[in-house]
Amino acid sequence: MPLRAAGFLVTLYGDAVVPRGAEVWMGAIIETCAQVGFSETLVRTAVSRLVAAGQLEGARRGRRSFYRLTASAQAEYAEAAGLIYGAPDPCGWRFVYLPAEGADAVMSGLERQGYARLRAQLAVGPARGPVPQGLLAFEAEPTGDTALLPQFVAQMFNLTPHVRAYADLIQQFAPVLPLAPRIGGPQALALRLLLVHGWRSALQHDPRLPEEALPKDWPGHAARTLFARLYLALSPAADSHIAAHFGAETAGLTDSEPRDHPYLTQLREMAAQAGGA
């Protein structure tokens, strides 16, 4: 999936800015985005579109423009943060029956949420969140020979795109891990943002099925470990850069460590369990 400026900006704010509770000068945004190849013109256009979409709000101080995530965008990213930085969220199974009228459109929406079509009006998927309005759902717990669950999943779900997404993430970022302690601040921040962006994309498209139903060689496990270890390895230089260069232009970004990042402990635990720091 190609990297888009608007999506990268949301990642920048969610990972680097919101944990410190502040807004950022446009110049710092432009400099950070330049590290991943976005031109100033493209960044300004993306910021304008995010403002129009209600995701960013700006304020002028003298000749400089500052931007922060809106309250609704912060809430949206906070929900995503549990998925990105947190431990895997366990779930059960849910069968959903659809009314005949409009079944095709509803089924397409369910498939985008990670459900598999069993019949024209019946789908199965992970039991997360509320049941969509107007549908009938049955929560289910596997019994009997549960060792057959991976076979069931292999037949019902197309996991190939998700395997590829995790494998691509590993291929892209695994070579960075041994180099991370020697990477300077601007590059460390850019790499960390790219890592978060790629990991978030892979997770949000993955149906995140129950653990016992996944193949033994599921690459999501290795990708999660890599994410935790590389994120922590890049963070000292990245956070120091944020404090020195973002904080110089805006109130609030003065700490080398984020004040409100409750998932760092979980990342450290995941890295330690895998033999990391």
UniProtKB/TrEMBL annotation:
<dbReference type="GO" id="GO:0006351">
    <property type="term" value="P:DNA-templated transcription"/>
</dbReference>
<dbReference type="Pfam" id="PF08223">
    <property type="entry name" value="PaaX_C"/>
</dbReference>
<dbReference type="InterPro" id="IPR012906">
    <property type="entry name" value="PaaX-like_N"/>
</dbReference>
<protein>
    <submittedName>
        <fullName>PaaX family transcriptional regulator</fullName>
    </submittedName>
</protein>
<dbReference type="Pfam" id="PF07848">
    <property type="entry name" value="PaaX"/>
</dbReference>
<dbReference type="InterPro" id="IPR013225">
    <property type="entry name" value="PaaX_C"/>
</dbReference>
<feature type="domain" description="Transcriptional repressor PaaX-like N-terminal">
    <location>
        <begin position="5"/>
        <end position="72"/>
    </location>
</feature>
<feature type="domain" description="Transcriptional repressor PaaX-like C-terminal">
    <location>
        <begin position="158"/>
        <end position="243"/>
    </location>
</feature>
<dbReference type="InterPro" id="IPR036388">
    <property type="entry name" value="WH-like_DNA-bd_sf"/>
</dbReference>
<dbReference type="InterPro" id="IPR011965">
    <property type="entry name" value="PaaX_trns_reg"/>
</dbReference>
